[in-house]
Each structure stands twice: as structure tokens, then as C-alpha cells.
């Protein structure tokens, strides 16, 4: 097995939980499906499953911690659900740019908005943090977002004690022209 | 590598340290910046880089060159690195002995490679591509690993020795990573050092580790423990180290604790050097 083929297979094994479980349970079947020979399967099996699992978990937590840093309010309101949702999210998404943690955070904020159905105000918190990252981190010059809840307090305070939001339709706008940037909430 | 300037003791720059590093500029000899954070920089990151550059010597540290990738170097990433190095004009730059991407999948962190002759050839080829574009010394960092490859044909120390000798690179010896691997996989870090080309050690990384289950983890979020200081001290005694960086990424303590760690490192560093590196600032 060439190093190239081994790395292709390992990258998938490290980052895809379902694929990893399937391979650990049925290495020959999954190996054949991925065009590995018996010898190549044996080379991968030689790596202890518990080491692969431990490494994959460490990768998951490193990625999670970075995203938590970018989305502190979403992290706070989702609490333990943040990690659960993030596990689901990474099954679907792998960042491709050099700003991979930022890209992860923006896409995860969108994922939360799509998948968080119990408490609708949490969607607005994720949407607000997504917009801030797109404006401040990615560098978009113009963003308009509609909210169903009153986000005025959150917009100016990154670590408020009280994160419960009242119903109030609002629109937030971020604008950058040259050196100058402004944001408004209407 | 022997002709490189001694930079002294510094820290890995993190935004949380921004105010404190300027208040304590006289106690910090240089900063290591994460190169990736300044690629495609927006206005505030560009300004931050300028500000840091105006006050400190900077060393760019890459996370994603993926020097061990058998599919070769990501040319776009490399060009961004070239631009940053042109901007910062550092004494040297660094990345890791690992691969981080394959077949369009970003692994998200530093993945180990098997210590084989084939992997060595891959590194040599990739590093030659990098060196054609960046004409300052590249130093390579040892990583922690949780996965070992039974297919390896040599020890990690042998592999690193061949690698730095064939590519004429320096070593960024992460003493914490070395200590963690030695504990997790039950080997002697002293013997590991015996088998490294210590004359190629340019820079050190240090920080505390913590336990997760029965393994030590390089979480970069704890104070450097005595066992790691012991490795640090011995390396300073045996090598002509040019600089050392405290790599604290989380669980940030009051800055006084960071300064204490820098001071401890400086004591070991200075007791084994007769070179006035502060003159280089």
C-alpha cells in the first residue's frame, strides 16, 4: 500500500465517525469497498483500533474547542447540546480554506439555525454570531439579517449574564466602506 | 543553524495576551505567531501584524504545510506562507513533522506518519518545494501522537535525524511533546535525545500537559510541570538553543504566571549560554 493510499484512507478514518465504526467492525468488507487489497487492509488493521479512536476523539475535541471560541454565546445557550450538534455537523462538513476554524464556526452557526427547533431564540443567537464572524472575520462588507427576537443587548455585549430574549422583530445591518464600518439594529 | 541569532525566550502570541505583552515588552524577547492566522488577513489582522512587527521579533509557525502529505504541497497555502515571510522577514520559520490533509479532507490537526523510507522521500521532496520558495531556514517540530504504525522501519529519532540531515533543516524540539510521548509510550526521553542530532536544535516549545484517562495530552492549557522543566533544562545544557516559546492556548492564567514561566525558562536558558541575545531585540 502506498503512503498516498494509506493517507487517503486514514484521513477518512480519522474524520468520519460512521466510517471508522464500520471499519473497526468489518475491516475486510469496508477495506474491499474502498479498493484495498488484503495486504493493505492488514496494514491498517495493525494500527490499534483504540489508538485510532483516541486520536479521532482528540481531533474532534480540538475542532470543537476552536469553534466554541468563535461562538461563545451559542455555546453558552446550547450547553451540552453544542457538542451533540457539533458531532452531527462534522458528519456533513469538512472545511476547505486556510481559515478552517472560522469556516467551521460560520457553517456550524448555520447548522444550528437549521437544526435547533426547540428554542427559536437560540437560532437568533447563532445567526447574530454568524453575521459577526462573516463581517469581522471573513471580511464581508455588507450584511443584512432579520431577527425574530430582541438582540440589541447581545449585539453590544459579548458576555451578557442574561441570554433570554424577548420577541421583537428586528433587522441588523453591518456596513464597511473603506476604513469605516458601522452596524445598526432597526 | 549555528549561525542563527539567539532570540531568547518568548511566547506564542494569542489575542488574549495583546495588552499584557505590550505592558511587559522588556520581559519578552520574541513572539511566535501562528502563520495561518495572518493568511488572507482582514484589516484588523493586518494592523495587528504590523503592530506586533513594530515591537517584537516575530517567528511564523505554520500548522498546515502538511510536509508529510504524499500528494504533495498545497501550492496556494505555500504562496500565502511566502507572502507572510516576505512581510515579517523572520530569522527562521517552522512547521510540523506530520500530515494534515489528504484527498480533499482536512484532518483538522497534526496527524503522524509512519517512519518509513517512503515517508522520508515524501518529506524530502515536499521540503525542497518549500525551500525553493522560501529562502530562510525551516525548522521542523516533533509532534505528539496517539497512533503508532507497526509498518515503521525506523524509530522516530532515526527518522527525524535522517530528515533534518537530508533536507538541511533545523529542529524545533517541543520538549512537552517529547515528554508526553515518552510517558504515553513508555520510553526514555534521555535516550531519545541521545539519538537526535542536537546540533540542529534551533528552537524549543514548552507548556504543561494534562491527563485524559490514562494518557497525557498536549492541551496547551496548563502550567509547565517539573518533569517538563527537567527535559527543558537538559536540552538547554546539551544544545545551543537559539530561542524558546511558551505555547499557552487556553485556560489562560493571570499574566504574572506566564511571566513566571518565562523567567524560569530564562534561568535555564541563560545558565547555558554566554551569548548576549537581548542585544538582538
Can you walk through the features of this model?
With 186 residues, chain A is α+β, with helices and mostly antiparallel strands. Chain A is built from ten helices and three strands, in the order H-H-H-H-H-H-H-H-H-E-H-E-E. Chain A has a three-stranded antiparallel β-sheet with strand order 1-2-3, covered by helices on one side. In chain A, strand 2 and strand 3 form a beta hairpin. The longest helix of chain A has 22 residues, at 49-70. The N and C termini of chain A lie far apart (61 Å). By secondary structure, chain B is of the alpha/beta class. Chain B is built from nine helices and twelve strands. Chain B has helices spanning 18-23, 43-55, 75-88, 117-133, 156-167, 175-184, 189-194, 226-238, 255-271, and strands spanning 8-12, 30-34, 57-61, 93-96, 99-102, 105-111, 138-141, 170-174, 201-206, 210-212, 215-217, 243-246. An eight-stranded parallel β-sheet of chain B has the order 3-2-1-12-9-8-7-4. Chain B has a two-stranded antiparallel ribbon with strand order 5-6. In chain B, strand 1, helix 1 and strand 2 form a beta-alpha-beta unit. Chain B is globular, with a radius of gyration of 18 Å. The two termini of chain B are 19 Å apart. In chain B, 47% of the residues are buried. Classes of the chains: A alpha+beta (186), B alpha/beta (281). The interface between A and B is large, with 35 and 40 residues.
Give keywords:
heterodimer, A: 186 residues, alpha+beta, three-stranded antiparallel beta sheet, 10 helices, B: 281 residues, alpha/beta, two-stranded antiparallel sheet, 12 strands, 38% helix, 20% strand, disordered C terminus
From N to C, what is the helix and strand string of chain B? EHEHEHEEEHEHEHHEEEHEH
Rg over C-alpha atoms of chain B, rounded to the nearest angstrom: 18 Å
State the helix count of chain A: 10
What is the helix tally of chain B? 9
Globular, elongated, flat, extended or rod-shaped: what is the shape of chain A? elongated
The coarse silhouette of chain B is globular
Kindly, what is the distance between the CA atoms of the first and last residues of chain B, rounded to a whole number of angstroms?
19 Å
* Beta-strand share of residues of chain A: 5-15%
Reading the helices and strands of chain A in chain order gives HHHHHHHHHEHEE
Helix/strand-derived class of chain A?
alpha+beta
Biggest beta-sheet profile of chain A:
3 strands, antiparallel
Structural class of chain B: alpha/beta
Estimate the helix proportion of chain A, in percent. 55-70%
Which spans of chain A of ≥5 residues are poorly predicted at pLDDT below 50?
A: none
Mean pLDDT of chain B: 93
Amino acid at each position: 500500500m502506498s503512503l498516498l493510499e494509506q493517507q487517503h484512507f486514514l484521513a477518512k478514518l480519522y474524520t468520519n465517525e460512521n466510517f471508522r465504526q464500520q471499519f473497526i467492525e468489518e475491516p475486510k468488507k469496508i477495506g474491499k469497498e474502498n479498493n484495498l487489497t488484503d495486504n493493505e487492509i492488514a496494514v491498517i488493521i495493525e494500527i490499534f483500533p483504540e489508538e485510532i479512536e483516541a486520536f479521532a476523539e482528540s481531533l474532534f475535541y480540538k475542532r470543537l474547542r476552536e469553534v466554541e471560541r468563535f461562538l461563545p454565546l451559542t455555546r453558552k445557550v446550547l450547553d451540552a447540546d453544542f457538542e451533540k450538534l457539533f458531532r452531527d455537523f462534522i458528519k456533513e462538513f469538512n472545511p476547505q480554506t486556510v481559515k478552517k476554524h472560522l469556516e467551521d464556526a460560520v457553517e456550524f452557526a448555520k447548522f444550528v439555525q437549521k437544526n435547533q427547533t426547540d428554542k427559536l431564540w437560540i437560532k437568533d443567537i447563532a445567526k447574530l454570531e454568524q453575521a459577526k464572524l462573516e463581517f469581522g472575520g471573513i471580511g464581508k462588507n455588507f450584511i443584512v439579517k432579520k431577527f425574530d427576537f430582541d438582540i440589541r443587548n447581545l449585539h453590544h455585549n459579548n458576555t451578557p449574564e442574561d441570554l433570554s430574549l424577548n420577541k421583537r422583530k428586528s433587522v441588523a445591518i453591518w456596513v464597511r466602506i473603506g476604513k469605516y464600518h458601522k452596524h445598526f439594529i432597526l | 543553524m549555528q549561525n542563527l541569532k539567539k532570540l531568547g525566550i518568548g511566547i506564542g502570541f494569542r489575542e488574549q495576551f495583546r495588552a499584557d505583552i505590550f505592558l511587559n515588552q522588556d520581559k519578552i524577547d520574541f513572539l511566535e505567531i501562528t502563520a495561518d492566522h495572518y493568511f488572507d488577513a482582514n484589516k484588523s489582522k493586518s494592523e495587528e501584524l504590523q503592530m506586533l512587527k513594530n515591537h517584537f521579533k516575530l517567528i511564523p509557525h505554520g500548522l498546515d504545510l502538511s510536509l508529510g502529505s504524499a500528494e504533495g504541497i498545497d501550492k496556494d497555502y505555500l504562496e500565502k506562507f511566502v507572502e507572510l515571510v516576505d512581510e515579517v522577514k523572520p530569522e527562521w520559520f517552522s512547521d510540523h513533522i506530520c500530515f494534515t490533509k489528504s484527498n480533499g479532507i482536512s484532518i483538522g490537526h497534526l496527524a503522524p506518519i509512519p517512519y518509513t523510507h517512503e515517508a522520508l522521500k515524501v518529506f524530502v521532496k515536499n521540503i525542497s518545494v518549500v525551500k525553493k520558495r522560501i529562502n530562510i531556514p525551516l525548522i521542523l517540530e516533533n509532534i505528539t501522537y496517539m497512533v503508532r504504525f507497526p509498518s515503521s522501519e525506523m524509530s522516530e529519532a532515526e527518522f527525524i535525524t535522517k530528515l533534518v540531515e537530508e533536507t538541511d533543516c533545523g529542529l524545533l524540539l517541543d520538549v512537552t511533546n517529547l515528554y508526553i510521548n515518552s510517558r504515553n509510550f513508555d520510553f526514555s526521553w534521555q535516550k531519545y535525545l541521545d539519538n537526535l542530532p542536537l546540533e540542529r536544535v534551533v528552537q524549543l516549545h514548552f507548556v504543561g500537559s494534562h491527563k485524559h484517562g490514562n494518557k497525557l495530552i498536549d492541551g496547551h492549557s496548563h502550567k509547565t510541570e517539573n518533569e517538563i522543566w527537567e527535559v527543558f533544562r537538559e536540552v538547554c545544557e546539551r544544545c545551543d538553543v537559539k530561542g524558546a516559546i511558551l505555547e499557552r492556548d487556553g485556560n489562560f492564567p493571570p499574566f504574572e504566571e506566564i511571566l513566571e514561566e518565562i523567567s524560569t525558562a530564562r534561568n535555564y536558558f541563560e545558565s547555558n549560554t554566554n551569548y548576549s541575545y537581548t542585544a538582538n531585540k
